[in-house]
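Friendly challenge for the regulars: who can give me the structure tokens for this chain first? No prize, just bragging rights.
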Amino acid sequence: MASYIIRRIIYAFIIIILVSLAVFLLVRMLPGDPIEMIVAQNTLADFGPEYYEQLEREYGLDRPVPVQYADWFIKVLRGDFGKSILHNYDIGKDMRSRLTVTLMLGLTAFVISFIAGPLLGIISAIRRGKMIDGVVTVLANVGITAPTFWVGILLIFLFGVKLGILPLYGYTLPWKDFGLSIRQSIMPVFVIALGPIASSARQTRSSVIEVLGEDYIRTAWAKGLKEKAVIFRHVLKNSMMPVVTLQGTMLRLIVGGSVIVETVFVIPGLGKMMVDAMLSNDYPVIQAATLVMTFVVVISSLVVDLLYGWIDPRIQYE
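First reply, four minutes later:
Bragging rights claimed.
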């Protein structure tokens, strides 16, 4: 077990390096120049080749790309994410506050989807063919197919513009203003959790229906066990493996989906930070935000793999 965890951590570190390297190279292929963005922002009339070269040296963009990457990654390992090229703020400090916002929304949505999705799937499978099954199936299909940005805009129009009962945009941390935070969280959390709830419900329904058809379940019914005993002792544990796998994927999608949701609701989180940085070609900010998101994805995958052995003792780690 220990050797397996060590190997997975090593693999995770390699993946993070490869992703960070790919992003480091790709952002430099984007059209536009961050130095020219600085000039345009400050409307510098006396801009010339000498000043351009001075800014390149100041931000380290005059060196070979491999040297830039090595220098940047070594600083990241020390906890230094550098400064924004365009706005000159400390990326690490700003990212910590934005990551708090993203995690508050994302983890809230994950907890809701983790509970609601499988619960709806179990109810739908147990009452297969009944009205509740049809309702859950239809809602799950709608939740999977509906575009995230469209759902967000629809909610803003309905509950923000027409009814005026929820804030249109923004986010306040709960320890600053709990009531306002709850009201601002309702729409974005719903949008983030909608897809995962729908996917989990469908996966759980299929998995439970498959297990319900197994011989040992029919034997349990034949012995006269009550429905609760059959469901909780035999069905759930043997049908949860695919669901746990999906939950790991859902956690990754929730973090990635923050880019769209935070943009739609103008929430100052990590996703909005990345979008703004991409629009302005702010290389260090894009690299830092992508690295943090990659880290969350890799860690979630590791946690899910370790949960397999707890759910199914037949799994052996080598």
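The mean pLDDT is 80. The chain has twelve helices and no strands. Your move, everyone else.
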